[in-house]
Design goal:
This protein has about 250 residues and is mainly beta. About 5% of the residues lie in helices and about 35% in strands. It contains 2 helices and 19 strands. The protein has a 5-stranded antiparallel sheet, with no helix packed on it. It starts with 9 loop residues before the first strand and ends in a 12-residue tail after the last strand.
């Protein structure tokens, strides 16, 4: 009789390619719980604490660290070692006074150390928007959360117009709106998918095509050295209007 139900374990070889782990060093790795981020583009908290930060050597030590509330994700204590941490999430270790953010590179996801100022906010990409009760607009964000906008903030011509793939800069953990970046020509961006993942530059051109969805439009990005690359708009994450809102150099 075949096995029924979902397996509770995960081998290293079939683990997501973006995970920075040795595939043949050991057999098993952490199987994450379902979360707001897709497992293929995020990291289990236990893997971050043990394998990337080196705070523990065993799963038991990881559980002891997390149960004591020593690790914060986006300003909130997380005690689940299988909790998924994804793109642009902010990890804070109050005891060491250190903070990190999750960024993509050509080799996968990595932890970028950031200062206390950059750790006080997070960048959220708008994936969808819906009009809800009381005339408010609900912006669905890339990490599974949402942000409500008052009618006066989007209905009047002189007000800011929120579009999918734009980026909001929200303070954490109280989530106050600090900035809004349009994904348009001139914006500083980072590539989050495809063969150019991790590349940083400014949008030089967006090819408009009536028969294509906006997410599938070809975008040309120019880096600080004048080199150009092309990808689709869905693989681009805005960092600021002209200059990046946070320091995001590529992984060394």
């Amino acid at each position: 009789m075949g096995r029924k139900g979902v397996r509770g374990h995960l081998k290293r070889k079939p683990a997501p390619k973006l995970w920075p782990i040795h595939r043949k060093e050991k057999v098993w790795t952490v199987k994450p719980n379902p979360g707001a981020h897709p497992a293929s583009r995020s990291l289990p908290l236990a893997l971050i604490v043990r394998d990337m930060l080196g705070f523990a050597k065993t799963a038991k030590e990881v559980r002891n660290i997390l149960s004591s509330g020593k690790i914060l994700v986006d300003g909130k204590v997380r005690r689940d070692e299988k909790f998924l941490v994804g793109l642009m999430d902010i990890i804070t270790v109050p005891e060491n006074n250190k903070s990190y953010t999750i960024l993509p590179s050509e080799k996968g996801l990595f932890l970028r150390p950031i200062d206390s100022n950059s750790a006080s906010f997070k960048l959220y990409r708008i994936e969808d928007k819906t009009i809800v009760k009381n005339g408010k607009m609900r912006l669905d964000l890339h990490d599974g959360s949402n942000y409500l906008v008052e009618e006066t903030e989007y209905s009047l011509p002189e007000k800011v117009v929120y579009t999918t793939l734009d980026v909001l800069k929200l303070s954490i953990p109280d989530r106050e709106l600090l900035n809004h970046t349009k994904l348009d020509v001139g914006a500083s961006v980072i590539v989050i998918g495809g063969k150019n993942m991790g590349k940083i530059g400014k949008i030089d051109k967006i090819e408009k095509q009536a028969d294509k969805k906006r997410r599938d439009l070809i975008v040309t990005i120019k880096d600080e050295n004048g080199n150009q690359l092309q990808t689709i708009l869905d693989f681009v994450f805005a960092l600021g209007d002209n200059e990046a809102l946070t320091s995001v150099p590529e992984e060394r």
